[in-house]
Amino acid sequence: MGEEVIDEMPCSSRPAGRNRLKFLLGGGVIALAVIYLIFTATQSTAAYFFTISELYARGEVAYDRYVRVSGKVTHAAIQFDPRALMLRFQIADESGQTLPVVFHGPKPDQLRPDAETILEGKFNGKVFTAQTILLKCPSKYEEEKGIVEEKVEAVR
Amino acid sequence: MAADLGYVALLLAFVLSVFAALAAWWGERRRTIELVFSARNSVLAVAGLLTLAVLIELFLLLSGDFRVMYVAQVTNRAMPAFFKLTALWGGQAGSLLFWSWLMALFAAAAVLGGWQRTRLLIPKVIVVTQLTLAFFLSLISGIWALLASPLEALGMPASAALMSEMETLTPFYQLKFTPVDGNGLNPLLRHWGMIIHPPLLYLGFVGFVIPFAFAVAALSTRQTGDLWIRVIRRWTLVAWLFLSMGLLVGMWWAYGVLGWGGYWGWDPVENAALMPWLTGTAFLHSVIIQERRGMFKVWNMVLIMVTYGLVIFGTFLTRSGVVSSVHAFAQSGVGPLFLGFVAATFVASVLLLFTRLDSLRSENALDSWVSREAVFLLNNVLFLAIFFVTFWGTIFPVISELLAGQKAIVGPPFFNQVNGPLFGLLVLTMGIAPLMPWRRASPGKLARLLVWPVLAGLATTLGLLAVPTLRQFAILPGTSLRIVPVTAFYGLLVFTLVVIGQEFWRGTRTRRRAVGEAYWTALVNLVRYNRRRYGGYLVHLGVVLIALGVIGTQFFKVETQRNLARGESFTITSPLTGTYTVTYEGLSASIVAEDVRRTAAVLKITREGQFVGLLQPGQDFFIAQEQAMTTPAMHHSLAEDLYIILAGWEDGGVTATFKAYVEPLINWLWIGGLVFILGTAMAVWPTPVEERRIAVATSASGRVVTARS
Asked: Of B225, B249, B551, B705, which has the maximum CB count within 10 A?
């Protein structure tokens, strides 16, 4: 077995080697292009997870970059102006660091003190402007591992 | 009592599936036909036992035996009987049982169906299907809990705890007490889309195990000729059909029920179902090359092996969502076991492939860049690229956490940016492929066939570029190329559309001339006698229509969000049909079902001053679950949907907040989906024997030729 390894080409007019090389080259170019696309798109769209302390520690590096930050809604007043669809609240992490949040959109039903949230948006050093609010609330359902999520998106 | 019986059936099925695999293996090795017969009978017995187990589970669900933990988790007293039955796949344990049952039925059908024709392959088919089945059954029959005490003794208490928890994963696990009522099914799942979506997906997943089993059987017995390819063709298409339907219904449900105005969010769970579809579709295409030209043999093996791995991975992912975090993964014993199984089967497959490489030598080489083989190759590379991008994006949180120590995610913009252009190229290969002859195209003939499609495509692109209103609507986030990609994409679609039309026309004309039939008869007969080819074209037509809708919603979607007092209104402008005015007239309350209360807003919709209708977006409150669910309201037309959600209200409805979307061309997505399914069904439908002779004759020449018989 395997002794008569010849690339059989019963009825082809061109040498196989040259063609094979061409196809390998072509495939290589496509693969490189895709890898390049993946690489640049990952860099430009990846949203990092930060804790509130990390977000402050990063300083200007994190400003105006799309990030994810998680924390608990604090007991400070949740202000909502339904006419303007403007929502303001604060979240805090375990260390007690707080982050003021502003969200332009409807108030999620589950947004109440001590609710666990994951926010996506941008931080300008003072206020976090959330694009989406994801709330995790205890649930009875097994398939979500005891968590039910509510997700709200801001007006674009 | 019934639960005990179900559990015994499950355990017996597990034992018999292991026995079937061993007996088939041994029987083939020792050439003992009795053992293979015994293995076959075991396969049938496993199917019977699992049918019994499923029936018992259904009985438990229906009778509301809340002492059974699974029943208490997914049903409650208030649920209608129909939903109680569908709760079989409403939770993890039940869906694994359901999966196993389907697997057992498919395996039995494959073994019985192939018994005569593929006698030499059957033992290994039994080994592969029954080992897969045994793994799934081990998860839900509490087998792994047996490992708890040995692990404890070895000083691994954490692993021991995980394994002993596996005991509760059986759908027949009984609590020490009987709860008064169950939790009930998640309200989001109480929709016909969610009722048929999981079974369709599972049928697709399970279906792909059969081609994989035949591939492994062919490889290990070195029967790598045409036989296995012909045997699995229908299996693959059926699996693919179900998977495609599952994906489409899932999108439809997400759009109609989830209330976010979208249908696809590149969520890990969605990706888990898409990935095997991508590699499966690549396989479906490249296997044609093997059938016709004896090429790409190793490639095809790799594709079906990867698809199998993804199917197992997908089954697991759709039920646990572990990709969102490494931590969630380690919290259940199921994750590591699944990953271990996927890794083990993958390593075994690769080893098998390497030891059999000599039997997979290509019978031909690629002759030219300009040939159908080359276009199929490009099509495969693109499918794999899209798969890889999707895979990368799905597991990126895990990668970044492991490598960079910092968790990050990539969202829809990543997938759209990278996969968008790749899908565009894919449409191009789809358009060109039918025009390409095998081996090598003659430039003159190719050019003649390309004239009309290219002209039509160019005209579309240029024509759309000239429409000024389109420019203001086409928004591609994050780039300055706004209008060019959109119009180019539409040009491509029209190009492909004209190619498909031209193929039908050329076939009809040839047949009409040769057989002397009228145009309509010729068309109907053309399709009837070449179902595979023209079914395929219909599938492509479906893809074009789907793409029409996808691009429409991706680039031209308009959304707005407003808070209105009674009597107030807002406007939203469609890129295609003009400006809608939405006026809020008040809230209404109603009782939808025994345990569901609805609050709906009444909205008057006009377009350019013309009354369109009343829309009533609302929120359903599920009393037992204390959960609210938005119910979007839509105004459908072929041009677009106006899609409105009630986001909230204040002071009993004095003011209310709405979200409105205009979704251009979205209904073409669903129409395209129907065409797609129809085309696949047509390709898969058995051809009667006398017609097959003609079909073989016609397809052997690569073109439609006369069938004057």
From this structure: B551
